[in-house]
Specification:
Helices cover about 35% and strands about 30% of the residues. It has 7 helices and 10 strands. The chain is elongated. About 30% of the residues are buried.
Length: about 240
Amino acid sequence: MEIDIRDVLPTIRIPALIVHATGDRALEIGHGHYLADQIPGAIFREIDSDDHLPWLDGSDEILRCVEEFLTGARPSPAISDRALYTIMFTDIVDSTRKAAESGDLDWTDLLNAHHAAVRAELASFHGHEIDTTGDGFVAAFDGPARAIQCANAAIQVVGRLGLNIRVGLHTGECEISGDTLAGLAVHIAARVSAIAGADEILVSRTVKDLVAGSGIAFDDAGVHELKGVPEPWQLYRAAMR
């Protein structure tokens, strides 16, 4: 603070970036303008802050200024990969008991037949398999009506194998990460599925509202607390007319 370097500034011959907070409470912004004016070719950037210390308020904007200075390009704003999907969770009812009754080899064959049957229905209704959960599926659809139709078809086809499944559906924005989906919508669909009974398609109010007029019937399934999800949720049983 006691050294006068003003005479040195015009001798600087390397690229220089001067960043100063508009409302700097330690040194008013005129000091920053002076530095930029005296250093040949210096770039001056103001940031919207009143802090003098760069690691406090305004640090993100400082980093963007530095990145632009070093790379020559303003960093693009981060765009969240999010999209609206209908998420379907399925699960075999009483799978542990059925596995014990069938024996390992027969259960493996039955599980393989179940997987093949559900995957065939997913393909028929343009569903995208996200994951398998041992004896169930996580799938995504671009519309809730097709998801309900697929769920109904899957219940019918695995029923011929002597199996019962439960299905939960919810529509919401999901985070896209490679081939997987994440976010609250996925958790809600999982919680809805856990409440469903054998051969039951349980859906959130969001799904019901989106398919109004589609010919799909709904019965009130009551209000439920979904573990880890804020507020109670109204659920409905879906059935094809």
